Amino acid sequence: MLEVLGKLRKMKNNAITVENVSKIFETKFGHVKALEDITFNVGEGEFIAIVGPSGCGKTTLLRIIAGLIRPTKGRVIVNNEIVNKPLTNIGLVFQFPTLLPWKNVMDNILFQIEMRGLKKSDYIEKCKELIKMVGIEGFEKAYPSQLSGGMQARVALCRALIHDPPILLMDEPFRNVDAYAQDILDLELLKIWEKSRKTVIFVTHNLSEAVFLADKVIVMSYKPGRIIQTVNISLRLGRPRTLQSKATQEYGELVVHIRKLIEDSTKFELKEANVHT
Amino acid sequence: MYILKKGGTVRNFILSLIVIFVLWQVLPPLFKIPSFILPTPSEIISAIVKNDVVLAANLIVTVNEIILGFLIAIIIGISLAILIFAFKILRDSIYPLIVILYSTPRIAIAPIIIIWFGYGLLGIVTIVALTAFFPILINTLVGLENVQPELIELIRTMTNSRLKEFLNIRLPSSLPFIFAGLKTGMTQAAIGAIVAEFIAGQAGLGFIINIGQSTLSTTNMFAALLILVLASLALYSSISFIERFLIPWKKAGEYVVSE
Exposed (0-12), middle (13-18) or buried (19+): which is B168, by Cβ within 10 Å? Predict the structure, then answer.
């Protein structure tokens, strides 16, 4: 009973609330409906993954939550405040590393600190730890143009973590990283999350990555982006997760389930693709 | 010389220069072309040696005009670009005018400038500044506006200070554009200075070339021209040098580490 109450209380503590959010882009080809009536809650310390086919508006949704663009309808509430300007209590990772070409690895990470008016020297140790954690030791003084895409992505991850934000918004952060490194980075991300219990929204189209990381996976459809289903992962897949979690039956079933949801919503495209195989 | 690539390219360039000068030295006498039509390189060089003091004095005059006008063009060009970028009203009102002026041959208004500002240094420097300023302004503006939008989004999650955004993202991102503008501006400044000296100069390399035309001393004209080419090259190269110093990340991409 107490446990249930405790769970209820935890559930009430929403860090992020997305209410009836729609987004219509005005282009020269007319209105493009990117998002339609998106509603969901993210509890404090919860890890949410958003999956869906390319063009389903995942990135747009993340930008709206971050306050970088306004929804056409609906609203986003973060920590009981309506979002109407860019959030500054977040760590943001884009699909592309988006590093400053004129700063080396260390200074790119510390840029976060510098811009917040914090003392850089207080964060140098932490910066070194992060660099070690993501496996780019020895490249502290390298410029982004000297790094591969995957290494740049790791720098971007460090930059999003250095100021210890309560909320992490990540848009396919590891898409340029090879599969082995991706597993390692996923594990490191989980380790950080378990330690600091940040609220995470993780956009990806890698379904197995989504299931592996998240408490809940929000599955979106294509054009316009709607939520098809929110799949509760933690109900079936316990924590802490290890690479062994990927070998369990539950894991496999969850991935298949989500894949099926997406396939059903995009039947037309997949049929087209089948012609070639 | 930063206009050249390393290694074999330099060698090829120097070889072709030597070939051109040898042909230039040998062919005109062969075809009995008089030196008031086309003096040979050896005649030009001996004219330079003979008139070294005069040429040096006039070189200083011209370089002085170019540098003064160029500096004014940098200050006005960059600050006006920042203002146009910051205020939409300027963008709608002044910027179209600037584009119209840019697309007209600015040299055409040089005589008017001389009437307004006189035959002295002021008039000439004004012409130099006016010719150099357009490419600097336009390139700076293009640079400020073509920042990767994700970089702007990113810094807005770090600070809401637009000044920090400008100084830490926009300005450094535009440096390569600004330098492209400075290089074009510098060549324009040299043109401006020479034209100004043609119409109003009392000294300078352009003045010497102009006087040479009326006295048919072609060798002296070529001597002044050669000095002018070398001076322009030196000024242009010094901008490239500063660029390398200020934008080291442009050359940092020479090798890529793979995973």
Answer: buried
- Sign of torsion, CA B106 B112 B118 B120? positive
> Which residue type occupies B165?
E
- Cβ-defined contact of B259 to A102 (cutoff 8 Å): no
Question: Is B29 part of a structural domain of the chain?
Answer: no
Strands (E), chain A: 14-27, 30-43, 47-51, 73-78, 81-82, 90-93, 167-171, 199-203, 216-220, 227-232
B41 falls within a domain: no
Burial of B15 (0-12, 13-18, 19+ CB in 10 A): exposed
Residue of B nearest to A112 (CA): B158
pLDDT of residue B71: 97
| Position B13 in a domain | no
Strand partners, B121: none
Q: Say whether pLDDT at B8 is over 90.
A: no
Domain that holds residue B235: 63-247
The answer, for A138 touching chain B at a CB cutoff of 8 Å, is no
Q: Which of A57-71, A142-156, B95-109 has the lowest mean pLDDT?
A: B95-109
What does the pLDDT average to over B35-46?
92
Token digits of residue A214: 């998240």
Q: Where are the domains of chain A?
A: 2-89+166-276
Contact check, Cβ <8 Å, B153/A68: yes
Contact criterion met (CB < 8 Å) for A88 and B159: yes
Work out the minimum CA distance from A99 to partner chain B, whole angstroms. Answer: 8
Mean pLDDT of B21-29: 93
Contact of B133 with B184, CB cutoff 8 Å? no
How far apart CA A197 and CA A46 sit, in angstroms, is 7
The SS3 of residue A216 is strand
Q: C-alpha angle with apex A67: A63 to A69, nearest 5 degrees?
A: 60
Total domains present in chain B: 1
- Stretch 54-73 of chain A: residues touching chain B, C-beta under 8 Å: 63, 66, 68
Residue B55 lies in a domain: no
Q: How far off is chain A from B162, nearest CA to CA, in Å? A: 11
Class of domain A2-89+166-276: alpha beta
Structure tokens at B156: 């807005």
Phi-psi region of B68 (alpha: psi -120 to 50; beta: other; left: phi over 0): alpha
Q: How many other C-beta atoms can be found within 10 angstroms of the C-beta atom of residue B14? A: 11
Instruction: Indicate the residue of A86, A143, A150 with minimum beta-carbon distance to B249.
Output: A143
Q: Which two tokens stand for residue B141?
A: 């503006």
Question: Does B257 contact A148 at a Cβ distance shorter than 8 Å?
Answer: yes
